């Protein structure tokens, strides 16, 4: 489940009704050097900006952030959004303060950003009540947008900025690449940059710089520990299928966190030091391609034992955040950003790509669900499936498929128009009313399935039921070559997981319910209009990938982990048994009313200690994201923890 309660998400701030009149005042020192300053009453923080007289791109800026100590970190957004613009984050560090340059490319902890540098200046300090950061920033006023074009601030006008602050401790205050957790509050204001311009900018900066190195953010650092650790198997599970031999040691460093495997399973860390690794795709030559959100796609040559022999960057494109697919012939690679999907000619042996082509545009720019999952069925090489989540916890408008949100669509790759398809208005539907169907997979009949992140913060007739309701879902969409206009319930119909939470009516697990039933639309309406899931999964687990094994006797699902539940849940890989029915179709073995269908395969030893709060740093927990089978039927899994993402290989022999 995902909502907008993240510093690293869009936060739907554009919906705020704010006056466009400047909300700043001018404060000058004795040398007549002036800052344009905004003070926020809610956070108790002040934000000052000083610019040079000439503000042609690129230009530097001085930022001043003053915040009370109760705000463990304070963030400033240079573009007014929490994704796709530089962020300056400040926190107390002893008697000084730390400046951290960040950039969020999706719903994740904003990553260290090497496109901007902060240089400490006089006035940076921490006292008994506040911390203050004063820094020259190079690279903060212009950046590459999510549409792959240069954007820069108009330094002569009024612009909109945003703030946020947190109250949980920063993991390592002395490090400018430290992880930090979810914000407590956020807001926006209009700032007069025209009054921030100074003719004496260069001389003032020179006289006020502190004698220290620049605070340049860097990418995550790889582990230098030269050994791998195999997880001990302790928990029984259903009988797994035989798979390729799992290497005993890949020399990839010790695991970042402790973990446990089900009986009969083995696991080895094969790679570390990655930046938010998400989806995995193996090519026809056995190389592993990995999407690293905010970085691009990396290419990993695999050795015969299942370890990584060598790695390189295949595509450097920071707008890519999750989706990847490969044509069945292995010659065309597909990947997606929040707003577009692209293709490249691909040479697996050389590990190279050709010229990029845009094949889909018009996907929603913003909202709380930013990933666009891609899939191609082996028997339909000309059809690309693209999943698009809602733009909020409850996206009312997405009840209509025409919005192009909370929907799965199919596009014919042999008929791509010039400039690409427009997502909302073209292609055909493979089902809609799925809140955020991040994970998609095909069974042995080439039928499409998906796993849905359901809603958060739920009430039934005003009574809080969110802790154990609604259930996540496994959906069956079927044959993608034929339009599927079925509605799967969102944004009004949801499934029960814990019936005892409902005091007004007796329910079973998997029953439909609405939050506020009335005479026009109620629980019964869902039965009349919505297509039921094949199975309900534990609430707040956040399933984001699924893969069937070779004969579709099991579906494996990554549970990315909760933020909207205490104690936390998820943070594991589970196995759901399937069977082939008399009509030749595949279906879960256990019924919709089951609460035991998902068996733990790879999991954290104490999930209640995992820090949820969306995809921010996990205190003591790995965080499963993508899955991929190699040719030996070994199952690879990414863990997209914020500072040292990992890849694991799992199997039974």
Give the helix proportion (percent range): under 10%
Enumerate the spans where pLDDT stays under 50 for 5 or more consecutive residues: 1-19, 216-240, 613-617
- As a whole number of angstroms, the C-alpha radius of gyration is 25 Å
From the structure provided, what is the oligomeric state, counting identical versus distinct chains? single chain
Main pleated sheet: 9 strands, mixed
**What's the number of helices?**
2
Estimate the global geometry from the Cα principal axes.
Answer: globular
What is the number of beta strands?
Answer: 51
Structural class by SSE content: mainly beta
Query: What proportion strand?
Result: 35-45%
Q: For the residues shown, what is the average pLDDT?
A: 90
Our measurement of the CA-to-CA distance between the termini, rounded to an integer number of angstroms, reads: 33 Å
Keywords: Signal
Domain Pyrroloquinoline quinone-dependent pyranose dehydrogenase beta-propeller: 260-651
Domain Cellobiose dehydrogenase-like cytochrome: 30-202
Signal peptide: 1-19
List strands and helices in order, with pairings.
Layout: E1 25-28, E2 34-40, E3 45-52, E4 61-68, E5 73-77, E6 86-93, E7 96-103, E8 111-112, E9 117-120, E10 125-126, E11 130-138, E12 142-144, E13 150-152, E14 158-166, E15 183-192, E16 197-198, H1 201-208, E17 215-216, E18 233-235, E19 260-262, E20 266-274, E21 277-282, E22 288-292, E23 296-302, E24 308-316, E25 324-326, E26 332-336, E27 341-347, E28 352-353, E29 357-361, E30 372-375, E31 383-388, E32 407-412, E33 421-422, E34 428-432, E35 439-442, E36 448-452, E37 459-460, E38 463-464, E39 472-478, E40 484-487, E41 494-495, E42 512-513, H2 523-529, E43 535-537, E44 543-548, E45 554-559, E46 572-580, E47 586-588, E48 598-603, E49 624-629, E50 635-639, E51 645-651
Parallel strand pairs: 3-16, 18-19, 29-33, 34-40
Antiparallel strand pairs: 1-2, 2-3, 3-4, 4-11, 5-6, 5-14, 6-7, 7-8, 9-11, 9-17, 10-11, 12-13, 14-15, 19-48, 20-51, 21-22, 22-23, 23-24, 25-26, 26-27, 27-28, 27-29, 30-31, 31-32, 32-34, 35-36, 36-39, 37-38, 39-43, 41-42, 44-45, 45-46, 46-47, 46-48, 49-50, 50-51
């Amino acid at each position: 489940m995902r909502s907008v309660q993240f510093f690293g998400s869009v936060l739907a701030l554009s919906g705020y009704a704010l006056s466009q009149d400047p909300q700043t005042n001018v404060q000058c020192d004795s040398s007549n050097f002036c800052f344009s300053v905004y003070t926020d009453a809610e956070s108790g923080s002040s934000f000052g900006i000083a610019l040079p007289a000439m503000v042609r791109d690129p230009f530097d800026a001085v930022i001043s952030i003053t915040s009370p100590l109760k705000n463990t970190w304070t963030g400033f957004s240079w573009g007014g959004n929490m994704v796709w613009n530089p962020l300056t984050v400040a926190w107390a560090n002893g008697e000084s303060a730390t400046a951290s340059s960040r950039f969020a490319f999706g719903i994740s902890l904003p990553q260290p950003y090497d496109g901007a540098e902060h240089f400490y200046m006089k006035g940076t300090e921490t006292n008994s009540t506040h911390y203050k950061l004063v820094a020259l920033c190079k690279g903060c006023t212009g950046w590459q947008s999510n549409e792959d074009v240069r954007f820069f601030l108009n330094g002569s006008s009024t612009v909109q900025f945003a703030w946020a602050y947190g109250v949980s401790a920063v993991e390592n205050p002395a490090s400018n690449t430290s992880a930090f957790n979810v914000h407590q509050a956020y807001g926006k204001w209009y700032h007069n940059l025209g009054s921030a311009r100074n003719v004496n900018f260069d001389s003032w900066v020179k006289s006020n710089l502190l004698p220290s190195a620049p605070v340049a953010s860097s990418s995550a650092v790889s582990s230098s520990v030269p050994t791998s650790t195999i997880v001990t198997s302790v928990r029984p599970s259903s009988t797994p299928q035989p798979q390729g031999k799992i290497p005993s040691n890949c020399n990839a460093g010790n695991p970042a966190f402790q973990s446990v495997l089900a009986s009969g399973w083995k696991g080895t860390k094969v790679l570390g030091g990655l930046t938010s690794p998400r989806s995995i795709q193996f090519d026809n030559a056995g190389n592993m391609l990995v999407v690293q959100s905010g970085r691009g796609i990396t290419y990993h040559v695999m050795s015969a034992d299942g370890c990584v022999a060598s790695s390189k960057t295949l595509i450097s494109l920071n707008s890519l955040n999750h989706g990847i697919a490969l044509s069945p012939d292995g010659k065309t690679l597909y990947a997606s950003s929040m707003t577009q999907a692209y293709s490249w000619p691909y040479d697996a042996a050389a590990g190279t790509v050709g010229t990029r082509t845009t094949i889909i545009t018009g996907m929603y720019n913003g909202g709380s669900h930013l990933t666009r999952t891609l899939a191609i069925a082996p028997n339909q090489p000309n059809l690309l499936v693209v999943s698009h989540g809602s733009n909020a916890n409850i996206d009312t408008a997405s009840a209509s498929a025409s919005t192009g949100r909370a929907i799965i669509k199919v596009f014919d790759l042999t008929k791509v128009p010039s400039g690409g398809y427009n997502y909302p208005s073209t292609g055909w539907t493979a089902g809609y009313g799925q809140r955020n169907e991040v994970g998609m997979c095909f069974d042995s009949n080439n039928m499409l399935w998906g796993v849905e992140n359901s809603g958060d913060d739920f009430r039934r007739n005003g009574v809080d039921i969110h802790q154990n309701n609604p259930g996540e879902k496994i959906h069956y969409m079927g044959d993608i070559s034929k339009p599927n206009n079925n509605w799967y319930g969102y944004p009004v119909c949801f499934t029960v997981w814990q019936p005892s939470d409902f005091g007004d009516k007796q329910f079973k697990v998997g029953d439909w319910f609405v939050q506020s039933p009335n005479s026009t639309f109620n629980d019964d309406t869902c039965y009349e209009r919505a297509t039921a899931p094949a199975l309900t999964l534990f609430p707040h687990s956040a399933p984001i990938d699924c893969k069937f094994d070779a004969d579709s006797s099991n579906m494996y699902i990554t549970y990315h982990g909760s933020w909207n539940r205490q104690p936390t849940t998820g943070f594991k890989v589970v196995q759901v048994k399937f069977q082939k029915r008399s009509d030749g179709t595949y279906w879960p073995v256990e019924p919709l009313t089951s609460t035991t269908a998902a068996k733990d395969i790879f999991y954290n030893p104490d999930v209640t200690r995992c820090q949820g709060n969306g995809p921010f740093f996990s205190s003591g927990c790995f965080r499963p994201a993508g899955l991929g089978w190699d040719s030996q039927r070994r199952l690879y899994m990414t863990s997209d923890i914020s500072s040292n993402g990992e890849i694991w290989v799992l199997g039974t022999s």
